[in-house]
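Homework help board

Subject: predicted structure for assignment chain

Our instructor gave us this sequence and asked us to write out the predicted structure in token form, then describe one feature. I got the tokens but I'm not sure how to describe them. Can anyone check?
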Amino acid sequence: AAGVSMTVLSTDYGLSLGLPLEGAVLILTAFNLTNGTGRLASGYFSDRLGRRRVMSLAFLAAGIAYFLFPLAGDLPSAAILAAVVGLSFGTLFSVSAPLVADCFGLDHFGAIFGLTFAAYGFVAGPLGPTLSGYLLDLNGDNFIPIFLYLGAFSLLAALSIRQVVPPGRP
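My token output:
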């Protein structure tokens, strides 16, 4: 929910900062660049440092970035924070499939991975942007409550992924 929400929030947040549309779009661009390129880096590092460690660190970084967003009053700081969230979102997509394979093997990988991302598509995907829009309407376009709940979701993800243990490991 936290990662996908940035795709719809970034430009609006930039506009709320008083940036011209061209500047506000750069926040979305920073998110997208690290979302894409970060997949390569996080996949590489997950092979060397461990999938749980890389995912939990990425989600922790996104949580911290979201908590810092209310302090971002200019384009560079907002773009850097959006880039951190983008890296986390890219990590979700590049590392979750190998983590599922590590935990459940390849015999039923397609079904298990399909269920994992069905949960993302049916719960987290709509929940993040929909709830964000509702909270913006409710709070007069105040982004602080949105950033706080998305930061909390990211921290919850960081803690939750630490609990995932492949079979046969302590």
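Reply (TA_rk): Your tokens look well-formed. For the description, you could write something like this. The chain has one domain: 2-162. That's the kind of observation they're looking for.
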